[in-house]
Amino acid sequence: MPHSTGPIIVDLPRTRASLDFNRLIPALRDAFIAGATVPLRHAHRLESESAATASLLLMPAWQGGTALGVKIVTVFPDNGKRGLNAVSSTYLLCDGQTGQHLAVIDGNEITGRRTAAASALAGDYLARRDASSLLIVGAGHIAGMLAAAWAAVRPIREVRVWNHRTARAAALAATLGEAGFDATVADDLETAVRASDIISCATLATTPLIHGGWLRPGAHLDLVGGFRPDMREADDDAVRVARVFIDTDAALTEAGDIVHPLASSALTREAIAGTLFTLCRGETPGRQNDQEITLFKSVGSAIEDLAAAALVWSDMRGT
Question: What CATH class is the domain 120-301?
């Protein structure tokens, strides 16, 4: 729709209100079925005052003459020490026919919600139908959304939270408790992994946290955090014991949890069972039995951002 008065500024509360997981997960499913033009993500490393490497990411996507948009993301891993989120982002949505700027949308909320929704979307194909115990590894912005996303697709009754900073895990568990979840802090990561149906990791780890030997039969491992080849949340044994899925082929070159096992021959390209495209389109079967261990690695895709932004814009127009 033409829009000539300048872009609407959509703040966090209005963005959040439009992206309820019961709406967002089906919207992502539809987007992966329909497809979009998604150029390679532009990733730039930035010099920073800290030892941690900062990053600038540019993520464009468009669907014919319908809509186009781009997300601008900065990642500063040491921001937790400053009491700030590691990730900051803004989404610019444009008219697909005229290129006019329609809306500037809170990108952090889009990123967190579409990331959690993508995990739940994959999990709807890969996690056991009766999976009820969820372990969240991490306590940041995205980790805080995972329980609600998973509860939209599975009967989650018990949530454990583990983080290398116990105080942050306790804070997230308290917040989840206020939201109605039976949430507790996991003191020991191995014990918590062994006891969980779903393990969902949203960290910036550069050395593996999850070991394949900890995964019990029927478990589903969801790896959200790593988006660079030097970042890892699980070891090579995890991909050896699991049936492996990725969100898009970008994970083959961007995700340390895939790149390193491919390099060590713990994983072969042919052994990767499918992507969100093939799962959503019915081209790849999901979980095949209740004893199978499944693994989903996501690096994020601009098609998800575009689908989320379209939902927000639809609400802004009252359609």
Answer: alpha beta
